[in-house]
From TrEMBL:
It comes from the Bacteria. GO terms for molecular function: transferase activity. Residues 36-153 form the Rhodanese domain. InterPro entries: Rhodanese-like_dom, Rhodanese-like_dom_sf. This is Sulfurtransferase. Keywords: Signal, Transferase. Residues 1-19 form the signal peptide. The keyword Transferase applies.
């Protein structure tokens, strides 16, 4: 029994270490981008339609969506359009690395709206596909939702947008994912 408890404890510790290894704060990401670290690619992984309504930061090097919106299919249960994984995500990340003279061992930091639905999964997916130093911005661009009170449900805490980091409601046509420029 003691061996089983020890094994479970070690497993939980390694999961916690993995979360620390793969997650990075918005502030640390900003500092590293400002320092113009050479071996770094900062990627916004949101669908450009979401960026259009939520906001954007010119600190990202590129926008490569991890999940795309299929506006021809409706998800009745969730009340939203269906999302599907970008089939070219890995190839597009490789192309962005090559464009900058970077290799697969470069640090790739992904950012979505909250960090949990596309940020962390996209970083894990990149790690599974040969990019061992992929990470994600904890709490993403917009941050976590407030749990209680008059502003419950609003994303008004932490994340890029709520940390006083530079952002805008305007998209950069040179950085945002565009089908007419692919």
């Amino acid at each position: 029994m003691k061996k089983l408890l020890l094994a479970c404890s070690l497993s939980l510790l390694s999961l916690g270490a993995h979360a620390l290894d793969i997650g990075i704060s918005a502030e640390e990401t900003h500092t590293r981008v400002q320092a113009q670290e050479k071996n770094l690619l900062f990627v916004d992984v949101r669908d450009p339609v979401e960026i259009m309504f939520i906001g954007f930061t010119d600190e990202v090097h590129v926008n490569v969506p991890f999940m795309l919106v299929d506006r021809t299919q409706w998800n009745e249960k969730r009340g939203v359009f269906r999302l599907y994984q970008n089939p070219d995500f890995v190839a597009q990340i490789k192309a962005e690395l090559e464009k900058r003279g970077l290799g697969a061992d470069s640090e790739i930091i992904t950012m979505c709206r909250s960090g949990s639905e596309r940020g962390e999964p996209s970083a894990a997916f990149l790690r599974e596909n040969g990019f061992p130093n992929a990470r994600y911005v904890i709490n993403g661009f917009q941050g976590a939702a407030i749990k209680e009170g008059a502003q419950a449900g609003f994303r008004l805490q932490n994340g890029w947008q709520n940390s006083g980091l530079p952002w805008s409601t305007k998209m950069n046509p040179e950085t945002v994912y565009r089908l007419d420029k692919r």
